[in-house]
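Listing 4. Sequential folding, example run.
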Amino acid sequence: MKKMADAPRQHNYSGTFVYFADGHMETSRIIHKTDQAGEREKIEALDGVPRIVFRNNDEMKCYLPDSKNIYTEKRWFRKFFPNLLPQSFDSIDDNYYVKETKRERISDNESQVLSLTPRDSLRYGHQFWIDTKSGLLLKVAVMDGNKTVEQFAFVQLEVDGEIHSDLLKPDQSILTQEWKVTDLVTSILKEGELKWQVKNLPTGFKKLVEMKRNLTEKPTLVDHIALSDGLATVSIFIEPIIRDASAPVPGVFTSRGAINIYVRTLGDNKITTVGEVPVETIKLIGDSVFRQD
């Protein structure tokens, strides 16, 4: 598990991977380079609306060619395949049974399959196909019992090859166009500094960070609390309800794949809980948010 967590930060790699959920498949291309300057990465969606994410260590830029928008943001723990494990995952054993199952060949690479079965009904199971040489994650499946909720998998991959720095820069056709740049600023707060807190967290979940953020198309700063059980992450966003705007619709909503969303109102505030956990858990967490004096 540690080898798998470290591998995406330690190796050069380039390849094409697919995401599959709810009968929908999406293909992306990734290029990752590591050297004395740190990490640089480019992820380009090849299906649907064009979007390209460039990362230089923790600094991210997302290009949306159709709308000519660029969003910049500092990465705090955002997860992109194949970099799905946090650097600290000591509590995984407390929440999942971890078992080596079999070996399989994925994209012409031998992999060791790890099965993570949840110890309760509050989280999804996972299967990881890990390259036996580099430790890089080749495929992952999120499981709800025997049902596959979503999958990521490389269909082509080269590891530890030479990667030219020019491949990780926007091409000239992008640089010569007029773009609107929006800086999405995140302010990290001290523990308990937010007036909003979460009581009675589900077993195994811990608070990672409290933040204030200016999110896309939001007129005011949004309070954000991030939680994790060592593998799954959950985000809570609290924002004031804007007068004269359409009233938020409370309830549970499903996104694609493993992501579930729960919206509730408390006073003049909208609380949105989003995470890669079952509906029962997302509602349990959302209902535990309260405002402290």
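-- end of first protein; second protein begins --
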Amino acid sequence: MHISIIGAAGMIGRKLVARFAAEPGCFGFEVDRLTLADVVEPLAPETLKDLTTTRTLSLADPGAAESLISGREGTERPDVIIHLAAIVSGEAEAEFEKGYRINLDGSRFLFEAIRKEGLRRPYCPRLVFASSLAVFGEPFPEKIDDEFHLTPLTSYGTQKAITELLVSDYTRKGIFDGIGLRLPTICVRPGKPNKAASGFFSNIIREPLAGQEAVLPVEDSVQHWFASPRAAVDFFVHAVRLDTETVGLRRNLTMPGLSARVGDQIDALRRVAGDKAVKLIRREPDAGIASIVSGWPRDFVPKRALELGFKAEMRFDEIIHIHIEDELEGKLT
């Protein structure tokens, strides 16, 4: 089997590759070829070098998607495609044309490349798409269930919602076997702050745990839906293994997570790392970020995903401990 991970240099992509390197049977079948693609060159673990090809490209570039899909005699065509590539919410909102070019046009180019390859000879890969809770917009019920409609209030959310519809339609037409995963805000993200409007949710935990100051641009009352990077990787592994006949025609699922306020995050940080860490959070209101975040959903009842076997954390303390275990070698600064 050949797996292609697009967006493999990003946080989830890197961790997904690391999971496969540590647990080669995690996808439920033998993988003899792995393609890692991103706008910067992805890195393959030494143990996977022999079966890995890395590609540096953008799906929005002419011919890039076709080069990932087409192969000779079917030997190079990916059997499973994990589509993680995107620019983040804050950047997509600030750079309107770029957001649509990367997040929407790039996805459609990929889907069309799969369709055209299927016209040449039979082809129907499994495709797992990373969507977002940004597909939902106000007004919200107290808890959003699986019947709530998509009304995004950002360009990023609109791009993801349109792509979800394409995933369903191309699947209905038998072009690929698709499933879209609406990810919670992934927290605590390792590394440095990025342009995501949601970045502060991780920053106010990650930096204090490392003994550094973090900026909090919103009020403690801001509430959101979270899962750890470890849970996010599990979502994609499970989606690859899943019998999609059990999913039915509605191919986009809200992933499990936990609902917490910023104040709950800070309380959890205090329980895990003490007042010293909490004092490193500096409050600096940002009206732009507050405006974007105010239109995001806060709590969910992801019944379909839970029934299909997707799982996430139950307490924010668990998310902090996972970050300490996975990124800090189990030690606090």
